[in-house]
Structure formats: C-alpha cells, structure tokens
Amino acid sequence: MSWNDYLFWYAQDRGGTYFGRHSEDYGGALLLEDPKGPILICTKITYSGRYGTYRDVSAAARVELERPYTLRIKKQSALRGGVNMVLGGLERGAQALGRKADLTPDYGVPELAEDRGIHTNEPEFTRWVFQSRELRALLEAWPDYKLQVDPMGPMGGWHLVEALDTLEHDPDFLGEALDRYGRPLDLEGQMASYRSSRFSEQLDALVELAKAARDAVTAWPMPMEIPKL
Q: Which residues are CB-neighbours of 146 under 8 A, at least 6 positions away?
C-alpha cells in the first residue's frame, strides 16, 4: 500500500481532515485538530536526483515566540560521532588544566547529546527546553526521529515545530500490497494490512514529539537578550 493509503486509514482511526488522491503514492496530507493548534502531517522531499527521490514524514505545529529561535536535533553520523569523541577528549584535557572549554555542549542532556547532533542559536534557552521530561523521553524512545524549530517568516514571532522521520526505510511503504493470489487488496484487506503494520504507532509518536516540542519551547520565557557591544 502507498503512503496515501496508509494515511487515509490512519485518518479513519484518528479523525482530522484528509487531503489526498487514492491514485497517487505520495502527496497525501492530514490536518489534525488540537486544542493548542492544528497539527499538519505530510511528506517532504529531501532529495531528488539521479539516485531517486527521498522523503521525510513531517508532523508540524506552530508556536509564537518572543524572537527568532532555531533548534535542530538529529542522529549524527558515525564520522561526526568520532569528531565529537576527539573534541570531548580535548574538553576534558582543558578541564584538567583548570581551563573552561565548551567544544561539545550537551545542553544539560548528555545522554541525548552523546549520539545526536544538537544545534541552536540560543544555548541557554535550549537548556530550559530540555527540562521537558516528555520531550526527552520521546527523543530517547525514537532515536531516528529528527526535530526542527525554525522561524516561519522574516518578521513576527511565529515558528514551525517539526518532528520528522525518513520514509523510505520503512518496508510498509515499498510498493503495493497484494493478496496471496497477486491481486490488489480489497477494502477489508487494506484495513487489515494497515492494522498489522506499525504505521499508527510510528505516526502517533511523531505527532506526540511535535506536541512535546511545541509545549517545551513555550513553557518558559526566553532569556533576556544581551545586546552585543
């Protein structure tokens, strides 16, 4: 079954407003209503070229903040992990000499920063964001999920909070599901295929991560910005 098919059946379970065509593999989107603002579920093309097209699944929410804020969290590559080990060794050496070093900031969550790249324009505020137990728990439970917070435009305080996962690594989305005779599944078979997959579990977690991040970045006022001399 296609992404659109799975998302259609997910909408039957979770509600919301579904947008998509049964004849297409991708392009389907679902708008979920939430007391704190709508959640948009859709796919995003991350690469398109001679080696194919790659997509992420996105669960996105909107928040309003006092000033532009960015946060990027994703599982780091093995190469980056090696670089961080070297930087960590230099940092410990500097500390042993009584010197302050902050080459590999962990933002108060070393258990997360150990295998993730965390980048932000407001390190002190990000430490407060990571005080959210729900956010930390979801990031620990789903280490492949990515999180992004970015301004939505050149002015104003509205930001997009996105939880993302790579779509192509899940075998549920590889090709059309067929019955044992090689025929396309009927409605009952499609529903059974959806319910036997991990689609709802994975997408529920992605939505919860977006909500937890939305709550975390609005739980505390941003620290006063000190003007540069």
A: 56, 72, 73, 74, 75, 163, 164, 165
